[in-house]
Amino acid sequence: MPYKERRTFHVALREYLREDCIGLPTKTVNQYRNWITEAGEILSFMPPLQITLVDMRTVEAEMNGNENTRSVKASMFRHFLRFSGNRDAARWKLSCKQRPAEDGVFFNEAQTAYCRSFAKELGNTHELIYSLGFDNGLRTIDMRRLTPHMVEKLLRTGSAAILGKGRNGGKVGMLHLNRITYGPLATFARHRAELVEQYGTNPSKFLIRVSNHGKLIPFDYRHINDLFTSISEMSGLEFNPHDARRSYGHRLHLKGVPLETIAKLMRHDNPNQAFKAYIGWGFAEMRAAQDLLCPSGMEMSVPFEASQLLYE
Hints:
Elements: H1 3-20, H2 26-42, H3 53-62, H4 67-83, H5 109-122, H6 124-134, H7 140-144, H8 148-157, E1 159-164, E2 171-176, H9 182-199, E3 208-210, E4 216-218, H10 221-235, H11 241-254, H12 259-265, H13 271-278, H14 283-291, H15 304-310
Antiparallel strand pairs: 1-2, 3-4
């Protein structure tokens, strides 16, 4: 491919990252750049407007990674092509689809209650973070962007507009607070007021802590991850912060809540997005389904402690 045409691809890529990825973390932008560059290498950095539907399917087939990874990479490349004005990109239907994560990610009610007991034991901050994730489906970025004004409205009315994940600074969505979160949230709000009075500063974010230098600072990603890790290690069940959001959607699905309602509660524009990424079937549900076909008296022998976690 001539240098001039290769340069056209890279100029379009820089323009896309500069204009369509405003406000995203540098790490995320670099990841997008790498994915689109990988796709460009497969096509020898053909100019975006010259890429045909056949070329797009070639990229999808030859990209590295499993089906989930290729689905995300191909979706990003398709978005880049549409941004660059390629009309064929709108006709590109991805054959690789994101699949729900496997067992261990979707906690049922018994597993959620089991881990909640350890969160309470660790203290109010752990309990609040746990409840925001498992009972309200908040992402880490949603938690970090909570403001005192939002929390005041949540405690007063039970609902508030929150700023979450999204381009151009984030997307606004409605949070309807789960009643089980009121107690931990109110307790932390009182503790926060005491810290503000003691240190004489009031950060713009609601979730704050005292730094090693004796200053009030907002929670960062690492601190929230560490809180979830502490609960996970103490309970013996492995999960990460985003597993809490997955389990939230999964539990609503098990309760029979319509998919459209789940999507609204999780602040998704498209119900299919909620279904693909956040509603799955874990080991407990599959085991229970298999046992329906098992003759009486032939059930699998499961230790009492394990059965309490596997079955509700």
